Amino acid sequence: MLEKRATYSVSMMARVLEVSRAHFYRWLKAKGGEDLWGPLKEAICAIWEESDRRFSFRKV
Prior knowledge:
By secondary structure, the protein is an all-alpha fold. It contains three helices and no strands.
């Protein structure tokens, strides 16, 4: 279903599959979905590790 999101709306797919949009988004969240923050999280962790874990979250 994820690969079809570019072609079809979530509303239409939910109607055809007879599921609610809320159920689709719940499934997506449980599955992990697209981790848009992943690269940023990795960069923040790398900076924190390089500082020997001395920097606070504000400084990072």
